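Methods, example record. To illustrate the input and output format used throughout this study, we show the complete record for Interferon-induced GTP-binding protein Mx. The sequence lines were provided to the predictor; the line carrying structure tokens was produced by it.
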Amino acid sequence: MGNRGMEELIPLVNRLQDALSGAGQSCGLHLPQVAVVGGQSAGKSSVLEHFVGRDFLPRGSGIVTRRPLILQLLSAHTEYAEFLHCKGKEFTDFDEVCKEIEAETRRLTGSNKGISPVPINLRIHSPHVLNLTLVDLPGITKVPVGDQPVDIEYQIRDMIMQFICKENCLILAVTPANTDLANSDALKLAKDVDPQGQRTIGVITKLDLMDEGTDARHILENRLLPLRRGYIGVVNRSQKDIDGKKDIKAALLAEEKFFLSHPAYKHMAERVGTPYLQRTLNQQLTNHIRDTLPAFRSHLQSQLLALNKEAVEYRQYSPDDPAHRTKTLLQLVQRWAVDFEKVFDGSGDKVETVNLSGGARINRIFHEQFPYELVKIECDERKMRREINYAIRNIHGVRTGLFTPDMAFEAIVKKQISRLKGPCMKFIDMVSKELITTVYQCINKLSSFPKLRDETERIVTNEIREQESKCRDQVSLLIDIQLAYINTKHEDFIDADKLENLLCSYFKVGDQVIRKGWLTISNIGIMKGGAKEYWFILTAESLSWFKDDEEKEKKYMLPLDNLKLRDVERGFMSSKFVFAVFNTELRNVYKDYKWLELACNSLDELDSWKASLLRAGVYPEKVTVDGQGNGAPESFRDPQLERQVETIRNLVDSYMSIIYRTVRDLMPKTIMHLMINSVKEFISSELLAQLYALGECSALMHESPEQQGHREEVLRKHAALKEALTVIGEISTSTCTTPLPPPVDSSWIQPSRYTHAHTVKSTPAIRGHAPPVPRMPIPTGPTAVSRTDGLQQLASQPTRAPCVPR
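The corresponding predicted structure is encoded as:
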């Protein structure tokens, strides 16, 4: 019956199976098992019943086994059966066991001969069995019967493959002796997933039904059609014996007598029969289990380590304990505050690689979008001169002015300063929107407690709105301060002697490169090459483009003098964002083109190019007084008035450049102080107090059903993994190991047509473990066998093949 260590090992693995069932399917561990594979009426059920010594499997015509049956045999002093789906209920009447199998099968598959891959778990305790774990699978069929689906063959093969493709599954390939062994579907499927034969054991049934004068001696001796693990012959009860209620014990005695009295088998009687098959399976299963348990242990330990931290937190958490609720609330809020701050500081655990987020988006608002909004409000040149002209003349009234009036300068400057309020308020709106978006992104970490999440979101959002209101008041105050006093003594304000030296806008930088990137010139006609992408380089003096980013072949260099830009509406089918540059003096900007339309791939890229062009001094197109963009400037007939307009125009430009620099500098600082830093400080220091002030701590910490289920699942899985590791720790390593037999030539087994004709329905596991096996030539000579001949004809032929070592 095997050594003591072996007898103790398999029950421990059965305990391990039960422990892992509490961890659910997500563990993904495939315990060592023996899968019984064969065609319909091959004798699989009889082999299993001989193991148990009882009639307990359903019988009938056609497909009877329609769900996998995981059968655990345990040696015990008393005899009873129990199902995993009927915990606590013991079956002593094996007719009831048969009925329960039929009922459980119908529960999932109905009565229409359909199949299901969900297994039935049956454990049988008996003093007449060895410790084995077997899987009885549906018999292989080729033709659907009755109302079976047309693809029943492939459904069964898929189910079988899902079990036997696992590397730690031993395959018991059952073939009747009165059929053609070379065409055995069981052996073909086994070879598909086990081409080296390391996991396949051949079982020959119905040896007593072979024609008189024929035998399977050479097959059982593994000399003809060899397998690496060889064959074991058994004799089952006939249908007549079953109908006559022949006792299995009597059948086993008859089997022993058959082998001892048969002239072809009596010399190997100790290596055939159901008892020897039991011992062989037990020993090989034990070896397999012992070899694969180290990998199981590592897998379990890695899963346990991944769950440890979460399980410790959940184990300490008690929903009904006020102290634990308070502690959990404190930890969650503190952790959320840290995560919220990390989003703006750029030090979060997860770095976004697809889009800008958090602090990066606000940084872009500070340095790209807000400066662009400021430049867009700059008054059009013609409109500015017209307003200065009217201001000077209205101040002089009926008199003729000899000097440039200061009041005209102050009136124009104040008007320009007042216009800053719109972009500044829009700036606040953009930052506020980003703050609220960040709150929504981070608040999902509190989704386990819906009430806490909603209250936190409400309190923080209200705080953002409150700080936004304060920031608006402060910005309005800053603009009012600038309006209160026009400081013409500012050190950067230009004096009269340097009016003629006033240069371009403060955005203008030196000759260094401002930006590089790909742009598409989209308004070039098809006859001239069509729209094409070029590598553009923008400096403070020019806009150049090259054939590619190696910058070797320059296509053109466009000076920036008198250039402006304007938006271009996207076409109906266009996915690009377009802007245009043109010359204000109506000159061609490139060859015979009055303007160039440049296309970007995204709105962010478009805004970035516009901001870069502003730095280079290329401003957006302004609407003139007549609203059409082509109005002519008013001609000033009074030369003295023209000089005064020019003087005030330059003074306004000089002073407003100071104001623009001040606003660009102060606005980000003001928003950072009054909004972002204030909100972060509120979250870290006052949010918790406001949550406590609600007086609903128990309601805040009420778990969502999803979180409660997740917590229970984690704790259950953690306990199951610990129990499984404990079971593994009890396994003795003193078991005896039988060496694997040497390889044999198994090319006589042709690949299953299933792997060639049904790859569409094959599972990933099948493809991963069973690549198509190339067809091998059939050997010729004295041992050559026609693939159409049956096993009886095979066995009756003389053979000169040498005995293959077992």
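Annotations derived from this record:
The chain is about 45% helix and 10% strand.
Residues 595 and 770 are 65 Å apart (CA to CA).
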